[in-house]
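Task 17 of the worksheet. Students: predict the tertiary structure of the chain below and write it out as structure tokens. Keep your answer in the requested format; marks are given for formatting as well as content.
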Amino acid sequence: MFDYIKFDDRGLVPCIAQDISTGEVLMLAYMNEESLEITLESGYATYFSRSRQELWVKGKTSGNVQKVMCVKYDCDADTILLTVEQTGPACHTGEKTCFNNTITKDGVIESKGSNIGICNINNALLEDYRTIIDRKSNPKEGSYTNYLFDKGVEKICKKVGEESSEIIIAAMKNSKEELIYEISDLMYHMSVLMAEKDVDWNDIFKEIEKRRK
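Model answer:
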């Protein structure tokens, strides 16, 4: 059925799962023809366990299922890419992604999901934005984000202006800690404004990429 896919001599092909909301790589597993067929038919990620020599549906026991939004394969036809909606953590350790270890020239640093790092800065912004969008769709009593949405774009813009001014003040005071705090505030209020105006961070990242050319 999948003659165009280059399964190895064991009948397997590596499969990468990627979060559709953040673009974050969640995990790598393996598929055979049967698991790929089941994945396409059911709409949920099903893999082949090399250790148990059996099929397994991701999240069947834990509830951390992967709803498959798109299935692709690479130019050599020897790797599958699933774009998924991940429920809960993807890693069996309880971490969101299996890729929590950063390799440097000095060795391996255990990030355990707590240190964002340069690799995941886009993901952090997208996660915050997704929370803001959720507040917009599902208002929560006492939420400052919902307060801003209720007040409207004029109030949100005013806060963006205030935070911009506070960044300038912090920079002039030569306070790194205060500058970090105020920049974080600005990023949050910018995200609220973007959500109000139906702009997301992927739009911004694409524009930045275009300017590099």
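Marker's comment: The chain is about 40% helix and 20% strand. The helical segments are 33-42, 121-137, 144-151, 153-172, 176-196, 201-211.
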